Amino acid sequence: MHFILVFDADNTLWDTNSVFHEAHVAMLEVFEAAQLLSDARRQVDRVRDIDRALIRHFGRFEYGFKNLATAVAYHYRHQADPSDAAAYVLERGEQALDTPMRTAVEQAYRTHTHALTQIPPLFPGVADLLGHLRTYRDANPHLATAIFSEGHPERLARTIDAYNIERHGYFNEIVIELKTAQAFERVRDIGRQCLDVADGDDVVTIMIGDSMQRDVRLANEAGFTTVYIPGSFEGRQVPQTELEQPDFEIERIAELPSILASLGLHLPGR
């Protein structure tokens, strides 16, 4: 039996949500200083609502955060509904704001961008799991591991470098591109190439991620086995379609080895 393990990165291996939370607070503090709002730290949910509206429009989580800063400013200046603020700003851009607000938007955007350079912490159990996977893979030609993320390449590169992920050889491949069912199929093909398997060989390809839409559904479409870990950004999701139903659900990544063992992959020391 051959195995390909594909991990989402943000909010699966490391807590990106905590970094974005503080970046949103930093943005709001700029607008608080511009007297658009008060008690910035209590306003993050409003920013998240606007962020989600923009994500729906662009079809990805990182879409150019000048749009977010502009929409947040418009929301507070005109008391607009978060989704309406996002839509209006997408139609008119910064023309929706007066000159003083454009200055505040630029400062808020730069502050937000700087805050995103912070390195997110690994989730408990991740470093231990990656070490066990590498030990198993080094001694066993039947396992390949990959990261598949659609996060911003420069931001991901900082985190990957901070934890020496490439230097320690934790993964055979790191793929950064927009997630689609076809992209998942390509990732599976990359894993098969790493394993050097023949067409008839039995290969189990497993996706581990925190999003039922971007990880579970698309991986299911590509024929993966799927493992869902609820994350702090999306929260615990409920499947809306059969394709969003994961094969397994766990609370934390430290529980993954038991799932792998049930599928026939027994890691050393577990």
From TrEMBL:
Residue ranges crossing the lipid bilayer per the database entry: none
Any GO BP annotation: N-acetylneuraminate biosynthetic process
Keyword Magnesium attributed: yes
One of the Pfam families matching this protein, by short name: Hydrolase
Any GO molecular function: N-acylneuraminate-9-phosphatase activity
Keywords recorded for this protein, A-Z: Hydrolase, Magnesium
Name of the protein this chain belongs to: Haloacid dehalogenase
Organism: Candidatus Entotheonella gemina
